[in-house]
Write a structure and sequence with these properties.
There is one protein chain. The protein is α/β, with parallel strands linked by helices. Helix content is 42%, strand content 19%. The model has no long low-confidence stretch (mean pLDDT 90).
């Protein structure tokens, strides 16, 4: 059976990835490494608390059993981090270090939660997009057996919204038709399920490519329309 490790397990999407992993029989063992322990509990969960994020990469090689899949849902905001430079250190530098450590540890499938619209016309001028593009490109160049990048739209359903006004508007777009909301936003639970579904396909040799970018439409397909417990 497959062992997975989750980084960013206490965030909106990471917590949903963790909950999905614990609920599925496809993963027999789940590890988390985080600054604070997740609320989830399960006999197959080993949660490690490490306040120094620079130590996270080194822990991967010491995990037993060794994970074949790593999910990286690490992310913060400029305000929470305390400025653009500190956000860059987390959303860009830390994520690339994590991917490099995973590759060195022999992880075969690496799943990264990126963001929709990062490759748009103005992406070269938007710091947030530049962070995500940098991580995506680094993961691709590392040459994992399978690398999966999810690019969801606005994340909906958070207990603590990062952009309360916008998220509130997007959450009610389904009143105009589900198709309208589906083009712009997606519930955090759906993203978590899609990430796990994509990883499961990779482990079964069913991923459509070695480097697989899962855009909004396919996230909805994998995590909602075709999702099976």
């Amino acid at each position: 059976m497959t062992t997975a490790a989750v980084f960013g397990c206490t965030g909106a999407v990471g917590s949903q990835i963790l909950a999905t992993l614990l609920a599925t029989d496809a993963f027999s063992s789940v590890k988390t490494i985080s600054r604070r322990l997740p609320e989830a509990r399960s006999p197959k969960l080993e949660a490690l608390e490490e306040g120094n994020v620079s130590n996270w990469g080194g822990i991967i090689s010491a995990l037993s059993p060794k994970p074949s899949v790593i999910f990286n849902a690490v992310g913060t905001t400029r305000a929470t981090a305390g400025g653009l430079q500190r956000q860059w250190a987390i959303d860009h530098d830390l994520c690339i270090e994590n991917a490099k450590a995973a590759k060195a540890a022999g992880v075969t499938t690496y799943v990264f939660i990126s963001s929709g619209g990062t490759r748009g016309l103005l992406s070269a001028y938007v710091p947030y997009s530049k962070m995500k593009i940098g991580v995506e490109d680094a993961i691709r160049e590392l040459g994992f057996e399978y690398a999966i990048v999810l690019r969801p739209g606005m994340i909906l359903g958070r207990e603590k919204p990062k952009a309360l006004f916008l998220e509130s508007i997007f959450a009610h777009l389904n009143k105009l038709g589900q198709g309208v909301q589906d083009k712009l936003g997606v519930d955090q639970t759906v993203i978590g399920r899609a990430a796990v579904a994509a990883a499961r396909m990779a482990e079964e040799g069913k991923a459509p490519s070695k480097y697989w970018v899962v855009e909004q439409a396919d996230i909805l397909k994998l995590g909602r329309d075709e999702w099976k417990e």
